[in-house]
Amino acid sequence: IKAWILQAINYNNSYQVIESINLYEKAIDLIKKIKLSNENLIESIYNNLGYCYEVQENNIKALEYYQKFKGTKDKNFTNIINLARIHYKLNKKSEMLIYLDEIPINVSDESIVIQKNLLQKMYSENDYLDINEEARKTLIKDIKYFYKMNQWELLIFYANVYANFFAERKYYKDSYILLKLVVISQSILLKGGVNNEENYKQSHFINY
């Protein structure tokens, strides 16, 4: 089972989402068949399946699997930020805010901290449409974090949202920077992610 999960993760990293989903579902079927008592493992698979469906833009299916992740005794903030993000995509911003409020300020995962900040600004139009130049630079720097960490799908989502917002306010240079990152990230994904050596070099060569 663990071998299937590792292979599914590798498939997902190389943007072979369908193959990844098939292996995760195969693992769940076997776990249920042999009645393996490992709630943490099953819930982890559900969370990963949710992300796979989110990548496919099947947001309703993604939400279904994210919600199956009940969490252990300690809150899983990765799952919570996933739930917040998917509610935004489903245009359920009030529900998104409820999940964001569950994430403490001192959470250690930088990706979660950045996403919480970006999503909170996306909750209220006035907050993020009227930001000054320094604030825009900080937002762009935060979004570039996903590029540095090879989190292409997250970068594409947040960069597209903020590129549109910047363009609407005539911050065209800032919008262009983000859109260029989107195009490069999409190209890397279509070629198999950073597992491809050429793509890896390209992803670390770009400097804005």
Sequence-ordered SSE layout with sheet pairings:
Layout: H1 2-13, H2 17-34, H3 39-55, H4 59-68, H5 77-89, H6 93-100, H7 110-123, H8 125-129, H9 133-148, H10 152-168, H11 172-190, H12 197-205
Helix pairs in contact: 1-2, 2-3, 3-4, 4-5, 5-6, 5-7, 6-7, 9-10, 9-11, 10-11
Provide the gyration radius in Å.
Answer: 18 Å
What is the count of DSSP helices, taking H or I runs of 4+ residues? 12
Span between N and C termini?
43 Å
* Percent in helix: over 70%
Strand residues, percent: under 5%
Number of strands: 0
Poorly predicted regions are 199-208
Residue-averaged pLDDT, rounded? 86
Look at the helices and sheets and give the structural class.
mainly alpha
Largest sheet: none
Give the ordered list of helices and strands. HHHHHHHHHHHH
General form: globular
Tell me about this structure:
The protein is mainly alpha-helical and 208 residues long. The chain has 12 helices and no strands. Helix 4 packs antiparallel against helix 5 (77-89). It is globular, with a radius of gyration of 18 Å. The model is unreliable at 199-208 (pLDDT under 50).
Quick synopsis:
With 208 residues, the protein is mainly α. The chain has twelve helices and no strands. It is globular and about 60 Å long.
